[in-house]
Amino acid sequence: MPVLDQISRLSKVLILGFGREGRSTYHFLRSRFPDLQIVIADQKIQNSVPEDPKVKTFFGPYYLKQMLNAKCQMVIKSPGISPHYPEIVAAKEAGVIFTSHTQIFLETCPGKIIGVTGTKGKSTTASLIHHVLSKSGISSVLVGNIGTPALDFLDQSMSPPSRISAVFKLRKTTISTTVIFPCPKNRSILHRPVKYPMVSSAL
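The structure assignment produced for this chain is given below.
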């Protein structure tokens, strides 16, 4: 079931990490689910918290423990937070659904998506593809780890026929086109060695 359909059946979700993507995720969800209870958790104390009576925040070193205590059925996790933290593993084992800003975008975007992954050159290649498409008269936007958070574009009234996302999320998704760079046999991802080519090829 698509993430937004799942959220429509829930009363409360948690945004784990409140950087650029986390803030974008909040605004995207609030515009579509005005009655949804949203919990925001981050290791750093944030100054850009919205004045929203339906928002609860957990900031500081115990944010992951508080995430568990919040008992949310879904967590939208920022990519910079390791999935190997014991609290996250425990939440998954308890049946909590984990998803991401990128996954919501991939499921919701009405246009084509070009995903770029690999070890080096992702930003340059994504920017080059965007430039070539734009110069060719094809409407496109550059979103993801560079450019603007992806969900910001879904809140705008633009529906270009081609969208470019610098997708660094290493999971199988529905992407129209992918660009994969040569990768070393082993690559450390979030402090753990993984077989990078195997994971990237899932795209």
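Interim note for the steering committee: The longest helix spans residues 122-135. DSSP finds eight helices and eleven strands in the chain.
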